[in-house]
Structures are given as C-alpha cells and as structure tokens.
Amino acid sequence: MSKYRFYQPITVRYGDLDPQGHVNNARYLTYLEQARVGYARQLGLWDGGSFFDFGMIMADAQLTFKAPILWGQSLRVGMRITRLGNKSMESIYSIEDAQSQQVFAEGASVLVAYDYHTSKTIPVPDAWRKIIQEFEGLEYPHPE
Question: pLDDT-based confidence at 54, cuts 50/70/90?
Fold first, then answer.
C-alpha cells in the first residue's frame, strides 16, 4: 500500500525542459506546488478563489533528485501531511512515473498557516486540523 493518499497528476510540458532535454530542476518545486494546491482543493482547505484567502505559505523545502524526467512522461506527485504543529505543518512528496511508479524525486516541506491580509502567521485552523487528521490518519488530536 502506498504511503500517500493523495496524488496530483502532472503533464510534463515542452517548456519544462532545459537544454539538456530533461525537466529543469526548478520545475520539480513547481510540481510540488501543484500537488499542494491540488491537495488543498481536494480536502476543501481552499476553494480555488483568491490566493490571498489560501492561508498557507512555504517556509522550508528539501528535494532529493533520483532520476531525470523526460518530455512525454506521465507523472504523479504524492503528497502527505505528516505532522501538524501549532502554526506549521510538515509534508512529504514523491514525484513518480504515473504508470511504473519509478521515483524521480522525493521531497519535504514545512508549510506555515498564514494570513496574507495581515502578513502574519496564524495557528493552523481547527477545521483544517480536523480534516487533515482524518484524511491522513494522524493520531494526535492537538499540536505538540
């Protein structure tokens, strides 16, 4: 069984390639971003409206490259929230071939609950906490 309950399909675009003919390393972070947006939409954490109403900002990112991605490959990005803190969430990712599940990259990020209208961090909303805990099967009810 996969450790991910959410996968975002990704289409590799010609414009994602660098002169060497594989996906440019900066695009990998864009693929993770697409997964975060898809995750938030699927779980109902964001309705797809104004980005100023999407109360999440990335504070840290880590990415390990395993294999090059080529044009025409069908991808999927697995995403999972692994920990909920008071104001932050830790997530992990896997960029994979959609058919063979070959892993091209693995990553992690720290996401912070953020109010773009006041430019301040905020506690992870209780509604988000409940939805994420149920979806991910996280056992602890409150932040550490």
Answer: confident
Q: Find tokens 């990415």 and name the residue.
A: 63
Q: Which domains does the chain have, with CATH numbers?
A: 6-136 (3.10.129.10)
| Dist. CA 89–CA 58, nearest whole Å | 10
**End-to-end Cα spacing for the chain:** 28
CA 6 to chain centre: 9
What is the rounded (10 degree) CA torsion for 122, 124, 125, 128?
A: 150
The per-residue pLDDT for range 23-39, each reduced to its tens digit, is 999 999 999 999 999 99
- DSSP one-letter code for 3: S
Q: How far apart are CA 144 and CA 59, in angstroms?
A: 19
Instruction: Return the structure tokens found at 32.
Output: 């993770």
